[in-house]
Amino acid sequence: MASLAARIGVWKSRKPVTGKSSSGKPDEKAASRGFHPRPFAVKTRTPPPLAQFDELLIWVLIGLLALGLVMVYSASIATAEASKFTGHQATYYLLRHGSFIIVGLLCGVLAFQFPVQLWQTYAPYLFLFGAALLTLVLIPGIGREVNGSRRWLSLFVINLQPSELMKYFVVLYAADYTVRKGKVGHLFRKAFLPMLVVMVMIGALLLQEPDLGAFVVICAIALATLWLGGFNLKVFASLLLALPIAFGALIVSAPYRMHRLIGFMDPWSDPFGRGYQLSHALIAFGRGEWFGVGLGGSVEKLFYLPEAHTDFLMAVIAEELGLVGVAAVIVLFTLLVVRAFRIGREAAFFERNFSALVAQGIGVWIGVQAMINIGVNMGVLPTKGLTLPFLSFGGSGIVVNCVAAAMLLRVDYENRRIARGLPV
């Protein structure tokens, strides 16, 4: 208590950082070092938090990664033991998923070292780099095709999925674009039309793979960022009316998407065909009841439920851990999204608009993707190949999720330093 009182006393006795030059004008050099040029914007009635990091967010991330590691192992044991590809090793997916988590954490630590301002500077170039990777995927002989989809680039040791990287790059690009176009946000031709053209181009590349799920998530990120950035409400209303028509056309244009929609509407009409995945996912949820059948006790993962350790991991969680396990996962994702928006709001309070939009964009991305995956597993949404962030097996997804989490922690870290009057 004495140490805490001493630290608060030091904070109160510290001279306020004005961010002004001797002439009384805002000091741009001070602002570039992390001092706000308008000190009235950083006044607060209570001392800033003593912790340098958001401890709750860190524990949420640890909880998701740890639960994912355990459940991926549980869901993949039977598949790994029976497959020649894995050498009949029961721990094959466990070891690989653990390796992905370690690589993701290392990449996250590296990403955390770069200031948010540096990410903003290179946001357009990263976006172009992601678009180039999406183009390479479609080139025969370069892109790798699995189950009829060409979504991966072979890096010998692992396969890179550019659509996962693109989600992060879109968060950065949309935030930077919104900040740059803030003064003309009410004009359709200057504000919305360029972003619309860019999203159509990215959508065309993703639909050629095809990867409709990633396209839906990217559209949600872009639209939410523009909305949060204060763009014109009337134009948003027209876009919201046009989007269902556009997605309806995409479904009608591809017979396999129409079959998935029909199977989703009544999976029991064809439980061994169109409704096979969903019917077994629903059986898993039904068997789990309140507290589940016990860790490792799932029957559906024994070659009944396809992609049990990736797209349908939530069904295995429901069967083994029951409603309690499902509720725990939803609570963890809710906490993550809420913290992302709180961090973004704090950044906006310091008039760090890019940081605010990036934090909230990451919240939208993780929230929408988790909602779609859980909805698909529960039969609330049509079957779509989207993984559960931080939990499902997959190298590209885990690494990119860890980098996004590090970015969120970096925004919060800079907020806390600015609140203390320290450089970032």
- Please tell me how large the radius of gyration is: 23 Å
What characterizes the major β-sheet?
A: 3 strands, antiparallel
- Determine the structural class based on helices, strands and strand pairing: mainly alpha
The total strand number stands at 3
Element string (H = helix, E = strand): HHHHHEEEHHHHHHHHH
- End-to-end separation: 28 Å
Shape: globular
Overview of the molecule:
Helix 3 (55-82) runs antiparallel to helix 12, helix 6 runs parallel beside helix 14 and helix 7 (188-208) runs antiparallel to helix 8. It contains 14 helices and 3 strands. Strands 1-2-3 form a 3-stranded antiparallel β-sheet. Residues 1-46 have low confidence and may be disordered. The chain has one domain. It is mainly alpha-helical and 424 residues long. The chain has helices at residues 2-13, 28-32, 55-82, 92-112, 116-137, 162-180, 188-208, 212-228, 233-253, 255-265, 276-288, 313-349, 353-378, 395-419, and strands spanning 143-146, 149-154, 159-160. 66% of the residues lie in helices and 3% in strands. A hairpin with a 4-residue loop joins strand 2 (149-154) and strand 3.
